[in-house]
């Protein structure tokens, strides 16, 4: 199996990206292809002991930044590392693409310029994977690709999310729920009510509506929402926890006793960080794209990139793309006769 | 000024409710009317030194619980403390109503059975007040009354929220923003784009779209959303901070050093709690109802109820109901000639 790693993805690229790719090559043994500015990548590789590691470099002359407009970046920068990397997957020279870069741009380049969508998919979705809950893996989608959604798209998200979670994350009979403002059937929007009717008819384990607090308790394995609500959900979660962390830091350092207490508690805080650390997961797939694409956070460290490669490998091995294609085809109305 | 306090509101009623009403009567000097089960209230009052305090009791034979269906509770329980209390305001025997009970029920009883809406208001909104930010008071609406909203309703929320924040909370020229998944005009839903066009035409200080993280930094004084998104926002915030708090507690108590560090840090944690404590605010208004109604959390303590009365007093003094009525009337198309 050959995994492409975008060397130009993280905010501090290419250092963490290259180091993470090396960790993955060492830990998993299969070839890793670094795509990006060849000179920069080679300079970075020279800082590491790479002898015997299956790492290749493919040059890409352009870099997608966080400032690039997702809708137009594919045309504006046809030689970006994302573009070149995804085309390696499209042409069969590699099996999956991993990037910590601009998520919207990656989705747009995947959808419009390179891999395209799986036959039958109405709209691909961005997924996020939360580190909370019993299994430590709750798959959320859509977390930002489609602000305005139709009920039918949400139902497809439910099917794709269920297949990914079962096949790739190896969660048996995943519980699929719809994010709502209450568990009762009367709660939610008209869109949610319509979507639930469609989801109930799918060959998945639908467990009803779920409130934010129960998502964080691991009350579902797959959580469905439109891309606007899903994005507000993950952004609010991130903002809430980082604001609280900041307030705690301020108060702990406000006097000597607090500072001492904080110092003694440091190992505990380190364990807290590890438990809620999204980098342990590494990244999440663009579901509905006709190929495995894993996107992680721009602030990712080398370990996150290694874990992103692990996610990509699991997705490829699980055959989830083919399963989504088959799953959607099975829902198509049968021709008469 | 006479404020009615629902004695049957909190989860532990009537103890915190009665104690909070007494604190308010003592601190503010004006009469407080406790409404609810007279025998229970009097038994509770007997535990306190009430001599000289301007506290009255009005009996209400029924109690709204969290299990009551908001839409039908007004008809099902016409003698509830909410019903009786709001009718005291409607008849002019009191100036405002404060309750820590079922929010949906309070809205429904206010709207359908007692006070009704301010002339011109399409839909009343639930508000929430966040303790974050520079002023420590960010007003959010709608946080749950209307899951499916029209752009015109959001624009009214913006006007009502701006007036409340300026007149009652005394924030000069409040910055009104729309909660979105990014600051750029291209972000957000169709509903948001339509609403923004209407809000721009209002005589308020519209500051654009705002992301969750900037809401928590105090980047706006009034934050507008539909009731579904607003509810997901506050519930996610609450779930995120309480999950993090729980994880910290678990890790701090996992060993002796952590426990010691935690003990030393206890005053700091207490200050953290106070900084993010919604009970310091006490409650938030049902905006658009034709009378001052302040609703707080069922877990409220006596101090929260006292602060809810303070909010109610500020709302009455500020004349915000009349200001909303006048503000909406000014937007009506003028008759020809």
Task: Characterise this structure.
The structure is a homodimer of 337-residue chains. Chain A is α/β, with parallel strands linked by helices. The first copy, chain A, has 2 domains: 1-121 and 288-330, Isopropylmalate Dehydrogenase (3-Layer(aba) Sandwich); 128-280, Isopropylmalate Dehydrogenase. Chain A is 47% helix and 15% strand. Chain A is built from 13 helices and 11 strands. An 11-stranded mixed sheet of chain A has the order 3-2-1-4-11-10-5-6-9-7-8, sandwiched between helices. In chain A, helix 2 (38-45) links the parallel strand 2 (32-36) and strand 3 (55-59). In chain A, helix 3 (70-76) crosses helix 5 and helix 6 (151-168) crosses helix 7 (190-200). Chain A is globular and about 60 Å long. Chains A and B meet through helix 8, helix 9, helix 10 and helix 11 of A and helix 8, helix 9, helix 10 and helix 11 of B.
Task: Describe the secondary-structure layout.
The structure is a homodimer of 337-residue chains.
Chain A: E1 3-6, H1 15-28, E2 32-36, H2 38-45, E3 55-59, H3 70-76, H4 81-90, E4 96-99, H5 103-113, E5 125-130, E6 138-141, H6 151-168, E7 175-179, H7 190-200, E8 205-210, H8 212-216, E9 222-224, H9 227-252, H10 256-264, H11 266-275, E10 284-287, E11 292-295, H12 302-318, H13 320-331
Parallel strand pairs in A: 1-2, 1-4, 2-3, 4-11, 6-9, 7-8, 7-9
Antiparallel strand pairs in A: 5-6, 5-10, 10-11
Helix pairs in contact in A: 1-12, 3-5, 6-7, 6-13
């Amino acid at each position: 199996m050959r995994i492409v790693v975008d060397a130009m993805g993280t905010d501090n690229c290419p250092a963490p990206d290259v180091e993470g790719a090396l960790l993955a090559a060492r830990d998993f043994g299969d070839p890793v292809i670094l795509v990006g500015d060849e000179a920069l990548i080679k300079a970075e590789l020279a800082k590491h002991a790479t002898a015997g590691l299956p790492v290749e470099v493919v040059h890409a002359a352009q870099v997608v930044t966080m400032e690039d407009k997702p809708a137009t970046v594919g045309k504006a920068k046809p030689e970006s590392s994302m573009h070149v990397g995804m085309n390696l997957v499209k042409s069969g020279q590699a099996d999956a693409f991993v990037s910590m870069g601009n998520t919207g741009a990656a989705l747009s380049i995947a959808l419009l310029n390179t891999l395209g969508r799986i036959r039958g998919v109405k709209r691909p979705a961005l997924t996020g994977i939360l580190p909370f809950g019993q299994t430590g893996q709750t798959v959320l989608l859509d977390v930002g690709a489609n602000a305005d959604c139709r009920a039918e798209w949400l139902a497809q998200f439910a099917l794709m999310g269920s297949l990914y979670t079962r096949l790739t994350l190896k969660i048996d009979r995943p519980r699929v729920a719809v994010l709502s403002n209450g568990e009762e059937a009367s709660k939610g929007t008209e869109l949610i009510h319509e979507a639930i009717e469609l989801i109930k008819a799918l060959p998945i384990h639908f467990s009803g509506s779920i409130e934010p607090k129960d998502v964080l308790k691991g009350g579902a394995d797959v959580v469905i929402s439109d891309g606007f609500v899903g994005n507000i959900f993950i952004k609010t979660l991130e903002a809430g926890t980082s604001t609280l962390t900041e307030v705690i830091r301020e108060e702990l350092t406000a006097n000597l006793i607090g500072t001492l207490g904080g110092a003694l508690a440091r190992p505990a805080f380190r364990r807290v960080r590890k438990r809620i650390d999204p980098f342990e997961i590494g990244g999440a797939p663009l579901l509905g794209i006709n190929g495995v694409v894993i996107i992680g956070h721009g602030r990712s460290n080398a370990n996150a990139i290694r874990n992103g490669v692990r996610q990509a490998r699991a997705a490829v091995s699980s055959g989830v793309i083919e399963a989504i294609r088959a799953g959607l085809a099975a829902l198509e109305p049968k021709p008469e006769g």
